[in-house]
Prior knowledge:
The chain is of the alpha+beta class. It contains 3 helices and 3 strands; from the N terminus they run βααββα. The chain is elongated and about 65 Å long.
Amino acid sequence: MSILNQKYITYAEAQELYSVGRSRLQRLVVNGVIEAYRPGKETLLDSASLHIWFQSTKIKPVARRGRPRRNAPRK
């Protein structure tokens, strides 16, 4: 079964999948950005809320303002 298809994933799986540190993930849980559950000793993160957070970090292109550069290609 693929990690992306699972409903809950561990910290280690989330770190590998999204390339973020454990402390960053813990901060997101404490701030209520992603949901987490602890049914036993291991904490499980809700993969849907984690994916929504990841999509929210997308960088949007910014239109350049001002005078064009001298050797800039024309569109």
